[in-house]
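ARCHIVE CARD
Drawer: 12
Card no.: 0347
Subject: one protein chain, sequence and derived structure
Cross-reference: see card 0346
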Amino acid sequence: MIWNGLKSNINISSNWVSNNNCCGIELQDGDASGVTISGNYVDIGSGDNALGLTGLNSSVGANLINNNTIIGGGRFGIEIKNPAGGVTVSNNSVSLTTINGETRDRAGIAVMRRGVLGANADVPNGVTVTGNTVDGYTQASGDEGFGIVIEGTNHTVSGNTVTNCEVGIQQQGGAHPNSGYPGDGNQSAGMSANYFGRGNSPIVCGNTISGNTFSGNGTDTRNVIGTGNYGLVVNTNTNENFYSIQAAVNDAQTLNGHTITVNPANPGTQYDEQVVVNKELTIKSATPTQAVVNFTGTASGKPSLFDVTANNVTIENLNMNVDLSKLRSAIIASSAGLDAITVKDNTIGAYGTPAGSYGDRNAVSVNYGGTTNYRVATGGVNSVTFTGNTVSGTGPGSYFRSGIALDEGGLTTTGNTLTTINHDVLLRFAGNGANNINNNTLNGGGIELSIKMRVPERLRYLVIRLPQQAHLEQRCYE
């Protein structure tokens, strides 16, 4: 055992360790970097673990735990506690070959939050678990035996063979029934049903679990994820990780001009939230695969997925599903000083039995004075960009009234495919900048333009390019 502080450039290889009363090889308390533990043979005996490694990180160098053989009893084969990235656990053979009197959860390989000290990551991060063989982790007491457990963010679990365990691979976070967070979770027998009780990370997201082989397990894979743990959301300016879009926006370190990236949601989940955007931010999918935002709860505030009240906001490459029985819009942008709103490359779909006022049912509503008056921008909105979006619905009646609805604004809308009921594009009282409606595919009601005051002068700032057979409704007000 090596104890306390930063432990760096450590190589523990080709040893034979047996007859443990507690632990085989341990780096305990503090943190560690540039660690290699390789080619060891550890018989846990009646002890607690074979390898227990705390606070691994890449500050000095990468960490490699590989080609070790672990047999015997105890609770844990390999514990990776509070890692902060740069850790690979590969090609180890971990088998529970004897059963002692332990009644708590067991695990062959566990990546977890436990005993966090000042230098440690609060959320486990950045471990690759690959090419390992784990066998025989069971627990007869009513608690469970896990082959591999991960909690936290940015882990990869692939190419492992897990056999004869109660649970083959468990991904968990934010759902410990007795979490004790920010302290430790209650790991006593019976205190963490369906959960690896020694770990209690509040977050799990952004992990990849694929290409593993299973045989003889009670359950091959299981995800136990707490409410609100939707997926990995990253502020790319601060490199902070979050588990929801709203948490990223609300964070004190998230400032005007920052970019928030949204990864695809955890298995079986989606971003089930209404988001208030009150800072000048870009919010976009982290990958070409669009993250899905679909709110299913009881709506509050404006009836939309995104309530935008700040200037210079971009919503990009998201898949927004709008339940019209609860909401009216994917995005409502409305405030006294509103300007520079960009909505690009999104997929916006409507579903559910529509409720509420038809006049408010617009996929994107910017400063629009419909049945509910959101037209409050002083002097209008100079710049609204709506490009590359697809707006659609589900039959027979779950469609938006319009794709984009804007009052008193300057609008650029290009390259969209819009299928709505009345107005694919609804632009009223235009005159706050140039308006360009170009190269769109309009499958619904076409375009409505309502242009106020001195019609010839206003039309100098309007460019419309229409496909054949497109519908244009123009209203002019003196």
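Annotation on reverse: The chain has two helices and 48 strands. Residues 231-477 form one domain.
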